[in-house]
Amino acid sequence: xxxxxxxxxxxxxxxxxxxxxxxxxxxxxxxxxxxxxxxxxxxxxxxxxxxxxxxxxxxxxxxxxxxxxxxxxxxxxxxxxxxxxxxxxxxxxxxxxxxxxxxxxxxxxxxxxxxxxxxxxxxxx
Length: 125
Prior knowledge:
125 residues; alpha+beta; 5-stranded mixed beta sheet; 6 helices; Sterol-binding-like protein; SCP2_sterol-bd_dom; SCP2_sterol-bd_dom_sf
């Protein structure tokens, strides 16, 4: 089942992250590093929003929707998420400029970057 939504081009990254978590060693490492449920709410150019989550607390998998009790929710535009995953944008700069909104445990949000870096090598955005 693909997590990609054609209205949100950057959503292909969620498939790449899911693929990166298929390796048992990578999954174990990601859960150890993340230890949280990360929810992402993206807004596309048409103003529509969609959510995905990355469970790095127990399951080590990616799914649609905000998931069960997200530890941290990151809200940003589809274009900014694509830049973030591609390594062209810095999460801290996006946050400081108001382009990235974080609800929940802000410190956990910092644990997300190594996981996104893994997807960079697999995603073709």
